[in-house]
Amino acid sequence: MKQEITSQDGKNQPKSTAGLWGIFFLIFCVFFVYAAEAVPAVNESHYLLKAYVTYHAGPLTEDIFLGSADTHWLFFRIAGLLTLFCSLETTAWILRIVGWALLAYGWLKLVQRSGLPLILAPFLAAAWLCGLHYGQLSGEWVVGGIEAKVIAYAFLFIGWSYLFTDKSYWVWPWLGASSAFHVLVGGWAVIATALALMLIGRQDVRREFRQHLLFLFIGGALSLPGLVPALQTTVGVTAAENSAAAEIYVYQRIPHHLCFSKFSEKRRTAFLIPLVGYILVATWFFAQRTLKLDSTKSPNSDDQRMVAEGTSECRKHAKIWLALGAATLLLALMGIVIEQYGLQGEAMGWASASLTAAKLLKFYWFRLIDPVVPMSALFALTLLAHSHRAILTQRDASPAQNGWSVALWVGLIALGGFVLKDRFQQLTQSSMAEADYRSLPVRDKSPEERQVIYQDWLSVCQWVKANTSDEGLWLTPRHQQTFKWYTHRTELACWKDIPQDSKNMLEWWNRLQEAYQKDENGEWKEWTTERLHELKKMYGIRYVLVDRRIQEEPPLLPLVYPLNDEWNETYAIFEIVP
């Protein structure tokens, strides 16, 4: 019985629409089990609120973050429409389902056009999530709560799937659409794709240069809804102010995403696993340059030619995946070089080195490395195994082929099962939204203590929404990030909610320095009555919400919550009166 090797013409793929829908549904289920956490997810508490204020003019637009530049302009306009008819929680779930469905479709196309049997798609998706979840370097994720980058990655998947067809120039419009939603995801994908095509030196790209140029132009036009708002973030301030904002963004607010030296030792160690995996697969690929055909068949047999063509196709596609991985690693290496230039230049007294590095590092040079390196290694490994007929073996398969097939399937199931089991337990055993778990100081508490603090937080926020005017400015505990989500009230500043434009970013930073100060031991100072009156004069604050675990001495101000039969052992609200 002859052994067929799947290629892009559809061999060994489901012939019926029902089969394709079934595979799609299984991929969607993998993403759902992994990411179906309580609302709001870690970034939903501010991105969906930005979408909300797009169509709800009112006091919230005066918030330092919500009223700042819309760098994800297209996403906010589309997502905001739902908030006209649905609650924020319902909006989040609708958009999550849409985002995961788009990711599932993109993943389906990647597997299909890479030339792999589609039955592999859900197993590859789960194994990839394992590598992404446990092998992060810069903290990037793809499948989770809804935000612009989820849609951007879905379009990236669809675009990259065209690299494995004879119409590779279609990659550019899809990457342009990706950039329209998230300019950094799409923009870096464009650069990584161009680098990968140069690395492999594809003849069809040179032959179809005009088509590539035309479709690249179309992609550029499609990217404008993401590109133009991003360019406007530096308007209205001086060059010195833009530099200062870049330093705040890179070195103060999110160095854990932008600076390799600030990545935790745990993450740098964890990333070695997908990195070593990628290196081993690449080594195997380049060690197998000489293809050996089955010696039991004549050189001119149809079966031999078919196997040789399929093997060549698999290796060609594996090479593309390895090139994409190499391109993202090269971009990350550039990020390391830029940071080192800033560090070494500052040590040598070069005043502009740190500023120059900050202005470059703010573009997230490590953006693609977390998802793409494990994806590249996984697809290339599977394609190489398929080229040796070690995935879907048949009766005439050799013992070695059967052994490799068993090993591959066991590996995929083990990796995917491990991460999905871990996530399922994590999401079902906690009733606390991830945005609250990460921002309320509860990680060192017992489950019972966490629940008390969480319920106290929800109670105080519900009271604020029901009993206070939506026009008052609030001073809130520095560590939280969901006050606006639950109350729809404006804050002086929130650490999580950093504006994206330079002007508001500088104002946000100044507010944080004024409102949250540390003592000589590096501990957060309590708010004194005098300091609260000063902040009221500076910014017009009306209410202050205190965390009693931090604010041991209550300010000499009227207490407005809790009163009478109300009870809240964690939080209290005071009104700053003249």
Structural notes for this entry:
It is globular and about 85 Å long. The chain contains 23 helices and 5 strands. The N and C termini lie far apart (90 Å). The chain has 578 residues and is mostly helical. The chain has 2 domains: 27-233 and 246-374 and 384-428, no CATH class; 441-575. Helix 1 (17-35) crosses helix 4 and helix 12 (239-253) crosses helix 16 (353-361).
Based on CA inertia axes, which overall geometry fits?
A: globular
Count structural domains.
2
End-to-end Cα distance, whole Å, is 90 Å
The number of helical elements comes to 23
> Order of strands across the widest beta sheet?
2-1-3-5-4
Helix content: 55-70%
Q: SSE order in H/E notation? A: HHHHHHHHHHHHHHHHHHHHEHEHHEEE
Q: Mean pLDDT score, rounded? A: 90
Report the uncertain regions: 1-11, 290-299
- State the secondary-structure class: mainly alpha
| Major sheet | 5 strands, mixed
Per DSSP, what share of the residues sits in E-state strands of 2 or more residues?
under 5%
Roughly how many Å is the radius of gyration?
A: 27 Å
Number of strands: 5
